[in-house]
Predict the 3D structure of the following.
Amino acid sequence: MPAHEAVTVPSNVAARHNLYAQPPALQIEEGRTYTARIETAKGVIVVELDAGAAPLTVNNFVALVRAGFYDGIVFHRVEPGFVIQGGDPLGSGQGGPGYVLPAEIELLHTEGAIAMARLPDQGNPRRMSSGSQFYITLEATPMLDGQYTVFGYVIEGMDVVQSIEIGDVIASITIQ
């Protein structure tokens, strides 16, 4: 079912894998600025989302956040000097909401970029993005430019991003 419908997100994080059959209908407002406040035990990360450059991705992220999809999910991948990655309900890098998103490749991978993960090109020639897994760059990573959908940038809490370890939990995310 679409992520925009009133679906109770299971409290068991793993039960959120393949919860939806398709991306949500459009629910963000054109021209509005959205920020995401990611709460962790290490502190708060505030991300400004760029709906102008990646409207489908921002809409999807906002819908999943509003549904509570990310609450309790861990950061399952940390590559020092590169990225932290979360958003997988299985915690393995293999899970998601049950759908993928079209690529919206426009923005650059500067320090603090938030972008959607995806499968490698050989199995994903259209570079479709994960429906829920995202990463945040720990420093500029220009080698990723033109390959992944960046949909915003950290505007507060980069020190928190730098301190995240594998297994740290996303307590909650709210949209402002």
Notes: Residues 53 and 148 are 13 Å apart (CA to CA).
